[in-house]
Amino acid sequence: MAQPVIKPDNFWQAVGFHFSVTFFGLPKSSGGKDAGSDLDIRFQSVTGLEATIGTEPLKEGGENRFEHNLPVRRTYSPLILKRGLLRPDDSSLSAWCRRALEDQQIVPLKLVKVALLDEDHNILMYWNLAWVWPRSWKLAELHAERSEVLIETLELNYNRFEFKNS
Q1: pLDDT in tens, 114-137
Q2: Residue 139's Cα: distance from chain center in Å?
Q3: pLDDT digits (tens, 9 = 90+) for 40-62
Q4: I need a labelling partner for 148 at 20 to 30 A (CA). Which of 23, 72, 84, 131 fits?
Q5: pLDDT grade, residue 3 (50/70/90)?
């Protein structure tokens, strides 16, 4: 089958400001809110969708001009999510992170889905992250002379991701 020809008038690039993050398997918050509620999908930014294949050098006997680099394990950057601060009673995600960081009750989620959306809120492409657990929680500066939204930063570790087209 012939590939379609991409012409400048029918080619577009995806924008990075319309996205969603969905958490599967979150327990309910202590306030009784449903797991994965509408509050837990709203983020200001998402970073850390990054995979790297490590290398191991191999020195071949008799070949002194170079050494081979062989692929070994993949490593993934932490997923960093930023949003306005929510109380743990209002957010299943915040409560899950709090239990892990304060009580050492680390319960990994089997799946987190980061989706890039089009103008009609349909999924263009998405990334499935497996075995996700909270690594750190940070709070922006408290400052009396600024009238800004207080931003919380959640850093989540994951074991692998898969990129999917919709």
Answers
A1: 999 888 888 999 999 999 999 999
A2: 18
A3: 678 999 999 999 999 999 988 88
A4: 23
A5: low
Residue 116 has φ and ψ, to the nearest 5°, of: -95, 130
Model pTM?
0.79
The structure tokens listed for 31 are 């306030």
- Kindly report the backbone phi and psi dihedral angles of residue 119, in degrees, each rounded to the nearest multiple of 5, phi listed first: -70, -20
Spatial separation of the C-alpha atoms in residues 1 and 59, rounded to whole Å? 44
Collect all residues with Cβ–Cβ distance below 8 Å to 104 and sequence separation of at least 6. none
Six token digits for residue 124: 């263009």
CB within 8 Å of 16: residues ≥ 6 apart:
116
The encoded tokens of residue 96 equal 């899950």
Q: C-alpha angle 82/75/47, rounded to 5°?
A: 15
Q: Which of 94, 114, 104 is nearest to 166 (CA)?
A: 114
Rounded Cα gap, residues 23 and 35, in angstroms: 8
